[in-house]
Design brief:
Radius of gyration: 31 Å
Strand content: 15-25%
Number of strands: 8
Order of helices and strands: HHEEEEHEEEE
């Protein structure tokens, strides 16, 4: 466009002018227009599927709803997480964080404890000999074998 030019070119004019010499550039222009429209419109969002299906979803009235993309993914339109009604997005985010934190706890318990052979509750060996006592009263070697009273470690109290 020339300096001080007051002409206005809409998308059709730009697409027509560009596509004559650079058809691939016209495709990029169309993609840019689509992405710009989706990013600027709060009622339209990209589907969060992985791998990305490349489709966008538009809602008519309420942006706080659950939708289903034609690829089959159901998700919350507001936060783009999996569908979570009747929970609010904030409650869902907190719940997801709690579940992730708990999974780390379960991983730690799995790695650092052994189940009692009598009641199957996790028991941690935290020093001393290999004799472990559970709160149910069962004593066992940390190799899972129950221990008779005559074989107990001389350091156990």
């Amino acid at each position: 466009m020339a300096h001080r030019c007051s002409a206005i070119c809409d998308e059709a004019i730009v697409r027509n002018l560009v596509s004559r010499r650079h058809p691939n550039l016209a495709e990029k222009f169309d993609r840019f227009l689509l992405e710009s429209y989706i990013e600027d419109n709060k009622m339209v969002k990209w589907c969060p599927s992985i791998p990305h299906c490349g489709k966008a979803i538009r809602v008519e009235e309420d942006e706080f709803c659950e939708v289903e993309c034609s690829c089959g993914l159901q998700f919350c339109f507001s936060c783009l997480s999996e569908a979570h009604s009747p929970c609010s997005c904030l409650m869902w985010e907190r719940w997801s964080k709690k579940c992730h934190d708990e999974s780390e706890t379960v991983n730690w318990i799995t790695v650092h404890t052994k189940p009692c052979p009598k009641c199957y509750k996790p028991v941690e060996k935290n020093g001393g000999c290999n004799l472990v006592s559970c709160i149910c009263g069962q004593s066992f070697w940390s190799a899972y074998f129950p221990v008779s009273l005559s074989l107990m470690c001389k350091f156990a109290t």
